[in-house]
Amino acid sequence: MKILFISHSYPPIVGGVESQNYNLAQGLSKIATVKIIANGRGKWWLPIFIPITFLRAFFLMMNYDACLVGNGVLAPIAYVLKIFHPKKKFFSVVHGLDITFANKKGILPKIYKAINIPSLKKLDKLFMVGNFTIEEAVKVGIPKENCVFIPNGVFIENLKKEFSRQDLSVLWGSDTANKKIILRLGRFVPHKGTAWFIKNVMPKLSEDALMIATGYRVAKNTAGDPDNFSDCEKAIQENSLENRVKLMPNLPQKDLEVLLNTVDLVVSPNIPYPESVEGFGINVIEAGACERIVIASNYQGLAEAIKDGKNGFLVESENTEQWVKKIQAIFSAGPDFAKNFGKMAGKYVEENFTWEKISKRYLEEMEKVSK
Which of 89, 95, 181, 308 could tie 263 with a disulfide, CB 3.0–4.6 Å? Predict the structure, then answer.
């Protein structure tokens, strides 16, 4: 199969969708003929990227069997291309916000609801990153039979690296040998729960428990979730956690790899936030690939990424007591438990979430429709 893959958000821009689109494109390229058209310049480039991409795709589709767009933002392009190329097949990856953005307030969500949602309905198949996303899609009128759940994946070899505790200490700025380091990896937006965790959980942990929160900051005037970096800073100051919590936005990939391979615990404390959704939660899979212990909220797509007791632990969202008890239990269990559980988590990820397996599922689903 010859596939034209179009992504409106792609590395070097950092983020979950960007990472998913890049890895999916690379995975498909190993098992099919794939042409990639991608925007790696950010949202400011979209007004130029979209019309140019449409013109390129209009002519390129004469030589391709299918077109796969990286999320719902590009669904109108795929739909119009389908009109001009009715014998070709058109697909879209659908992340949680691709659906729930239509429920937000403002002119852009209204436009999205009027144009993008109907366009998604016209495509041949939609690849949902979570069953929760399918539920949200059905609510806006997308036929369930047009949706198929395929989780996100990881290239383990690109993440699991050899780093020392000294490498972690360099990032932290002082010796971490006798400390317990907690990592929160995710955008600085409200539904990720970073500010909630700093405010409610960190003050109740022992002084040797430190936290690093990293991820990219969204633009102040973004159409999506608002930036809440300042809320995280405020939570640190109000709880006198300046020596125990560090915010490190927009770290380079190598530093992220150091963290993923050396910290003691990775947390995803997502909380409910209006019109926001965690479609899957790729960061918990990345942590498992690096043999880290993960604790995540039993909420939305995270509940599909984590198999409780296999590649991490699920606790109730916003339940401070549960979070504190689970963290304390893991830290008191000792290094042998951490090592053994980490190996089990790594094996679980390898068996279920490698891009080799996930990409093959995408290809199989596209070939079914194309027959």
Answer: 181
